[in-house]
Amino acid sequence: MSSHANRRSLFDTKIVRRASIDALAKLSPRVMMKNPVMFVVEIGSILTTVLLISNFVTHSGHLSFNLQITLWLWFTVLFANFAEAMAEGRGKAQADALRLAKSETTAYLVVNGVVKEVPSSQLRVDNVVRVNAGQMIPGDGEVIEGVASVDESAITGESAPVIREAGGDRSAVTGGTRVLSDVITVRITSNPGETFLDRMIALVEGAERQKTPNEIALNILLAGLTIIFLFAVVALQPFAIYSGAPQTIFVLISLLVCLIPTTIGGLLSAIGIAGMDRLVQHNVLATSGRAVEAAGDVNTLLLDKTGTITIGNRQASEFVVAPGVTPEQLADAAQLSSLSDETPEGRSIVVLAKEKYNLRGRELVQLNAEFVPFSATTRMSGIEVDGRSIRKGAVDAITNYLREHKSQMPPEVLATVETISRAGGTPLIVTENGRALGVIHLKDVVKGGMKERFDQLRAMGIRTIMITGDNPLTAAAIAREAGVDDFLAEAKPKDKMDLIKREQADGKLVAMTGDGTNDAPALAQADVGVAMNSGTQAAKEAGNMVDLDSNPTKLIEIVAIGKQLLMTRGALTTFSISNDVAKYFAILPAMFAGVFPVLNALNIMHLHNAESAVLSAVIFNALIIVGLIPLALRGVGYRPMSAAALLRRNLLVYGAGGLIVPFIGIKFIDIIITALHLA
Amino acid sequence: MSLNGSLQISLFIATILLLAKPMGTYLTHVFEGRKTFLDPVAGPCARLLYRVTRIDPAHEMRWTEYAISMLVFSGVTALLTYGIERLQHFLPLNPQHLANVEPALALNTAISFTTNTNWQSYSPESTMSYLTQMLGLATHNFWSAAVGMALAVAFIRGIARRESKTLGNFWVDLTRGTLWVLLPLSIVFSLALVSQGVVQNFKAYDTATLVEAQKITGADGKPATVTTQTIAQGPVASQEAIKMLGTNGGGFFNANSAHPFENPTPVSNFLQMLSIFLLPAGLAVSLGQMVGSPKHGWAVLAAMVVLWFAGTLTCYWAESQPNPLLHNVDQHVSLTQSGGNMEGKEVRFGIANSALFATVTTDASCGAVNSMHDSFTPLGGMVPMVNILLGEVVFGGVGAGLYGMLVFVIMAVFIAGLMVGRTPEYLGKKIESYDVQMSMLYLLIFPFIILGFAAVTVLMPNLGLSSLANHGPHGLSEILYAYTSATGNNGSAFAGLNANTHWYNYSLTVAMFFGRFMMIIPMLAIAGNLARKKIVPASAGTFPVTTPLFTLLLTGVIVIVGALTFFPALTLGPILEHLLLHAGHTF
Prior knowledge:
The complex is a heterodimer of chains A (679) and B (587).
Chain A: H1 13-25, H2 29-32, H3 36-58, H4 63-101, E1 106-111, E2 114-119, E3 128-131, E4 141-145, E5 147-151, H5 153-156, E6 162-165, E7 172-173, E8 178-181, E9 184-188, H6 196-205, H7 213-242, H8 249-259, H9 262-281, E10 284-286, H10 289-297, E11 300-304, E12 310-321, H11 327-338, H12 344-357, H13 364-367, E13 370-372, E14 380-385, E15 388-393, H14 395-404, H15 411-422, E16 426-432, E17 435-446, H16 450-459, E18 463-467, H17 472-482, E19 486-488, H18 493-505, E20 510-514, H19 520-525, E21 528-532, H20 537-542, E22 545-547, H21 555-592, H22 610-634, H23 643-675
Parallel strand pairs in A: 11-18, 11-20, 18-19, 20-21, 21-22
Antiparallel strand pairs in A: 1-2, 1-3, 3-9, 4-7, 4-9, 5-6, 5-8, 10-22, 12-17, 13-14, 14-15, 15-16, 16-17
Chain B: H1 3-31, H2 39-53, H3 63-87, H4 103-114, H5 124-127, H6 130-160, H7 170-195, E1 206-217, E2 223-231, H8 236-245, H9 266-290, H10 294-320, H11 350-363, H12 378-389, H13 400-417, E3 425-426, E4 429-430, H14 433-458, H15 472-487, H16 502-532, H17 548-582
Antiparallel strand pairs in B: 1-2, 3-4
């Protein structure tokens, strides 16, 4: 994969510096209000600050303790802001790199056949520009004339040039990429400020970030829990007064802040931003966070056979001879007939002949041969050389050809043809002077490791459906070999659409990839539609993700990233809530053991004294946010397995871990602050 | 703790688990409108009812209509009860010529029985006439339980239905729950109780001459001698049956199930405990059957059993402990004594059956008592309180327990569901922000009312604290327990608190009202919203809701969400009292 170029170290000093400043800027209540949990902490901090000042003026209260509590409360807010700023900062760094590609260029506008120089910012939709070798493409558009190799490394990070040509599914070009050879004429398809690059920058910067549905739901849960704990703490003071042990506001706010889910509340938006960022690192752009979430939920993957499950084209894998023919004879004829056949299939026949029978490539000119190209009427190709008339083609075409030569297909050859078809291969029959020599087995080659990946997907409860234009027999064989769950053979765009709708009617979420204009409706219908960057503009507009590497297999990674995002959220929520148990055991005895020494029985951590206990809990609560930033940004470890196994593992790590870790952490902090005589 | 006691407790839960499936299957048949063996009897009655009241049984209701029907029904029947109480002096079946009930108490009682709480701020035998008990109160025992079942069934339909706007018909569910389930069960159960000696008559109260005259301090503070005792009578067995089956808990007598006429023998005691859990356990099985995942029903039931077991074990253990203040006295279990803490317990039940009864009655929202929770050891008495604070979802009230549990299931699925890498879904239904919002509302109301009222009460020396018999942490427990019991619609009293004052009568009325209806509305809103959704087919990637791990998770969420909210209050109440007791202080 080419995405390594985009990977940054977790704590890049430049990002950290910028994030630290942003964390302060985010203290503005207008910003904080979007995060109810941290907003409550900020209000608590303001309250303690005001009280601290009045303490200071009136020389009342325990200044050192109150000051430390106040500071740590502020740190809690700042750490949460810092986490978010860090996540955003990583996006911003990516955006800066993209902006370099966005610098103003000169466009060669074609108006009525006359070329005019204008700045690229003046281009509008439907303008036509000419781009020569070495020049920057001035805006997003579609090639309407010519073929060129284009360097798209500015947006994809991939240094190998790609071919862009008029017509077909490789016509879209992106502003900011460079033409390396030839000349193309491009029709501009977006206005300045709305180009792909502009949208990309906005996306990675998180400027347009909206909360995803699940994030909103989780926020409601966290706000609800915050209110519940607010009740619990507010009601505690009357109970404390009744019991003759009233508490200071500092301690009550400390208890509140420790109980409300600040860990997940502080890291929630960072997790979301980081999820998008991980996609960007895989060179995938999602138009919304919603799409990333949907990726985690996908039930059905539609994968195109060619290029995704099998490597691009069929390859010759075997020569099967007719009775009375030697393998060398067949290989020789097959090679001769394919020397001028520039299709990948043709080339693979030459390669096979060389590998198996050591037949070297020969030059047609030297042979004084005449190549017979493939035509729609004969549906055969071949060669005339030294009086040898060699043809190769599909069964029915060759049968007709033999009939014309008053010859017949040997039944053994027909049997071979049947066997090859059944195995998912394509048989090509080779004849010489009206006699069938044998069959070339063209085979779809399933990419390495695909079966394992489909097994993993199955374990995760995801069904894969292979989409192919092949006949059902061939499709079934390849499906079996690749290990997909189902296939759609002889698929037309409408069949694909119907399949998606059928799956969705059952309540399933469907993901697919596509690049052609005729894929666009299906891409729009699918819950996760990944358009290939090499595809048409229509496809890119219809999908909700674009893969800059144009690698259809990446759909599987996208699903994994979606799942990882959701798992990270769940894990930190569980962790955060489990943490409360230990905090109770730290703070409650500290609050009341002064009046009721018997309550020291609850001080199971044996914290040094009441103040060190409260302070330790507050410090732990603040530091755990920082401690978990790497996890929030990187996401929890993820291996494909069944939901039951994932739940077992994550509950153990984050549920049980969440119960135990704070006991250790708080005790440790207590030891340190006691040693430093801070409490 | 003794082997004998442990065996009795084991026998109890084994019987419940044995009865759960047949009961659940029957309930499923009743509420899915399938054939049952009672159709020939109940069918014509129901049809007649529908014709008279002009109800179209085929009419399907959206959640809003379902909620409004339920509210109207509850409102009208509550008013009826209020009227009967206020006018009982002029009405028949009042051999003791009891006066009309005063307004605050009448309102409190009407709401109390309508909400399935059966909190009793009064002594029934000296306050309520036979007519009031039968027509005003016992009817509510049926209705409030039938309403609870109807609501639970509506919620289950919300989960089971696919892209549907409706949840069934409230009137039909109410009718079927009463005629097919509660009424027949009560008849059988009443007869069983009568066989054990529970009284059933309309006689005036008997007077017995005491064998030995008792010297007491009279109401005026002067010493007095008592030579006779009034023995209350009444139609007890018929009311007792539905009191337990409907998890109502309102006793015919003040002593409730500790009274020998209500609960005379260990057999009747066993039957009473069984009948508290019978319908809630059956409903859990029904849940599994109706949503098409029987194992899920059992997983939910398993969580209930785990929490029941934890409570019973703690309570039984705590009550079996010798009192630390009596360290010179032999308090061990032996053939001649029960050992442990027998204060406030009936000798015919002993510690095991008292601890079990206390746990069962508060796990469910029953509230009947066969011993005085106020006299339990601090930790033993904390168990009933914690049971209610968890939201009474451990079996829980008839219907109410199950829908409360389902809200926790939604919470558990939402919190942990993300950890399997999918947005949370419960039995194929996506849990989205609206569902979370309503669940949080449901969960918020509970601590808001309990902690709010308790906090205000402890700050008011005249209105609040003057009713306390004990001070210190025990007093706090008494106040906390009262609001917990009312809001949780349990109705059991910790005792030690005179709640028949204007402040307590009114504030507890509000607590009972909100604790029932303000929680039902968001719950039905969730059901209505779930019904509308598609069902995502299950796969290996689906969050598992049928495994022991799910049971563990659900238990954990109930304990953490429930207990964390109330842990500070409990620390200053029972926990502090327990620690102080061991340091030599009592209250």
